[in-house]
Specification:
CATH superfamily of the largest domain: D-amino Acid Aminotransferase, subunit A, domain 2
Number of helices: 4
Distance between the termini: 41 Å
CATH class of the largest domain: Alpha Beta
Structural class: alpha+beta
Order of helices and strands: EEHHEEEHEEEEHEEE
Number of strands: 12
Strand content: 25-35%
Length: 202
């Protein structure tokens, strides 16, 4: 039985967006393994004694049950460059522990991360959902690979909105932002879209 992963932010001993992680975890268990007995993450996650108020990345590894919970001190990655990579066969609709297919895409590029294009549509980077700005509005592709918890939260809060974004549409936007459970929209300056490598040859 293959294993899946939830990555949860812990800061000042508080778990963030736990309801979104729990919903995705139990949805995956039901769809992939046919399990209807739900796991209550709030009851399962125990903060280790003596842990500081710093930011931690909490990795919950699971399949039919929770196999492991890991707490790792977190520092946000500096992403200064992005490159277009086409991958029409990529599938990451569930957050698998095995990320080898995504890592292979990353190995092909000469940038800090990749913007994955599937069948002509903008999807995600190797480890985050994408948000694009146009004026004062923020948009996220409908063609995402993984339904990220931060993406769900920002949509529910009406901070961002969905749009179909083709590779040809990228030039209509100003900046690109990367979001995931550990990275929020308001923590970034964004990367100018025109600086995405590979975009200039399209």
């Amino acid at each position: 039985m293959f294993r899946l992963l939830e990555t949860i932010k812990l800061s000042y001993k508080k778990f963030y967006n736990l309801e979104y992680h729990q919903s995705r975890l139990n949805k995956a268990r039901k769809e992939l393994f046919g399990l209807t007995n739900e796991i209550n993450l709030a009851a399962e996650l125990k903060i280790p004694a003596g842990i500081s108020d710093s930011v931690f990345k909490v990795r919950v590894i699971y399949s039919d049950k929770i196999h492991d919970v890991e707490f790792h001190p977190y520092t946000m990655r500096n992403i200064n460059s992005l490159q277009i990579v086409k991958a029409d066969d990529i599938d990451y609709s569930y957050k698998y522990e095995d990320r080898s297919k995504l890592q292979k895409l990353l190995c092909k590029c000469r940038a800090d991360d990749v913007v994955i294009i599937k069948n002509g549509l903008v999807t995600d980077t190797s480890y985050s959902n994408i948000v694009l700005s146009k004026g004062y509005k923020f948009f996220t592709p409908t063609s995402f690979l993984l339904s990220g918890t931060k993406r769900q939260k920002l949509l529910a809060d009406e901070v961002i909105e969905e749009a179909e974004i083709t590779i040809g549409d990228l030039g209509k936007y100003e900046k690109i932002y990367l979001i995931n459970s550990m990275m929020d929209l308001d923590e970034q300056q964004g990367i100018p879209v025109e600086k995405i490598k590979g975009l200039e040859v399209l």
